[in-house]
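Re: the request from the purification team.
They wanted to know what the chain is likely to look like in 3D before they choose a buffer screen. I agreed to run a prediction and write the result into the notebook, where they can find it.
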Amino acid sequence: MKFLENKSIVLFDGVCNLCNNVVQFIIEHDKNKHFLFASLQSDAAQDILLHFNKKNSDFDSVVLIENEKIFEKSSATLKIAKRLSGIWKYSYALIIIPKFIRDFFYTIISQNRYKWFGKKEDCMMPTAALKARFLD
């Protein structure tokens, strides 16, 4: 994965409305275009996870690949926020809360995301302008 040096990859549930809105939010606040994206349902995500001896079925939340490491749940979310522009980067301070507490609340949202925010039939299709930031 040398071709992705200096970039981080966000893997997300492509049929989840909340997840798609979060990806749009990241794109809007990622002024340096640091993040690349792939839905967990994509072949690209499967290939990336196989590189780490993982399967996409191992994850039910956002996954961040950064510096050859995998982060998930609240840790992934906070590491993503740290690189965003504006006030959002300061939310990284929440990393001081023990992971088991952060992940407890993350899991509640994750388990209810379809019920609370809905689900799409198909994965999000990026616009032509954003296509370069999405892995196939």
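For the purification team: The chain is about 40% helix and 15% strand.
Please add any questions underneath this entry.
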